[in-house]
Amino acid sequence: MTNRKLLNSELGRATVEEFKHREKIPVAIVLDNVRSQHNIGSVFRSSDAFIAQKIVLCGISATPPTPEIHKSALGAEFSVDWEYFKETADAVRRLKEEGYRIISIEQTENSVMLTDFKIAEGEKYALVFGNEVHGVQQEIVDLSDDCIEIPQFGTKHSLNVSVCIGVVLWEFLCNVKGKGPFQ
After folding, report:
1. How far is residue 74's CA from residue 70's CA, in Å, rounded to a whole number?
2. Is residue 15 in a domain?
3. How far is CA 111 from CA 108, 117, 146, in A?
């Protein structure tokens, strides 16, 4: 048996317009002062792949269009909805008003391991990811309903923010799989 690599034209991907109308998982990604535009572009690409509702860019996080974001996003900055807030706290308060449960992805005293976190059916989640050096601001952790931590077993204590987002989004997608259009 051979495994011929598929051409892009054979993958059956949605157009940007089709993606905009596709049902999404009930997740908003909040970037709390993420400084690298390449990381931001990667977040757009992962959010497209795992059908997140939107990205909320905050503080020093750059916004499209920029060549650096586009280099990593490869056009996903056009398919995934996004908005910008100068202050992350303002974004979090707005998302709470919109009915989102705020989850900071951060190592805290009472964080729950991602593998142990129970995703409730019918709940909307705003997942907050922090700055590459300082993580999620304490003020935002304080505003959060929960904190989730990704189990790690090596010598380092953190993952690159774009990798972290891919891991967490995949886990959320897998946990809503079998419900609605995600079967």
Report:
1. 5
2. no
3. 5, 10, 7
**Domain interval for residue 178:** 23-182
Distances (CA, A) of 130 to 17, 40, 110, 137, 175: 30, 12, 18, 7, 23
> Domain of 74: which CATH number?
3.40.1280.10
> In this structure, is residue 128 part of a structural domain?
yes
Instruction: Pull the structure tokens for residue 170.
Output: 């995949």
Tokens at 126, concatenated: 């705003």
Whether residue 144 lies inside any domain: the answer is yes
pLDDT tens for the chain, 183 residues: list them.
Answer: 899 999 988 998 999 999 999 999 999 999 999 999 999 999 999 999 999 999 999 999 999 999 999 999 999 999 999 999 999 999 999 999 999 999 999 999 999 999 999 999 899 999 999 999 999 999 999 999 999 999 999 999 899 999 999 999 999 999 886 554 554
CB-based contacts of 127, cutoff 8 Å, min separation 6? 27, 28, 29, 30, 103, 105, 148, 165, 168, 169, 172
Predicted model pTM: 0.94
Residue 12 domain-assigned (yes or no): no
Look at residues 132, 123, 133 and name the one whose alpha carbon lies nearest to residue 102. 123
Number of domains, the chain = 1
